[in-house]
What we know:
This protein is mostly helical. The chain has one domain. The chain has four helices and no strands. It has helices at residues 2-8, 13-43, 50-70, 73-100. Helix 2 packs antiparallel against helix 3 (50-70). It is elongated and about 55 Å long. The termini are far apart.
Amino acid sequence: xxxxxxxxxxxxxxxxxxxxxxxxxxxxxxxxxxxxxxxxxxxxxxxxxxxxxxxxxxxxxxxxxxxxxxxxxxxxxxxxxxxxxxxxxxxxxxxxxxxxx
Length: 101
């Protein structure tokens, strides 16, 4: 366990679990690129599926939580801005779908 704590640069269980939260957010954020890539390859054109925006929002929220815990203003501003953009895109998608009915 001591080796893992050194690798993750943590000194107690609270820090350890916050690093796990940060890594989870980063994984969610990474998934959006994989989904977009696979979808585009299947359709042979650039496509942004709705799952891309949900993973963006989920990853952004989790990473914002981590950034707030770290008290990192640069990270907080970056994730806050992204969350607004991801939310707006999801809103526009849902409005478009509702109007199409």
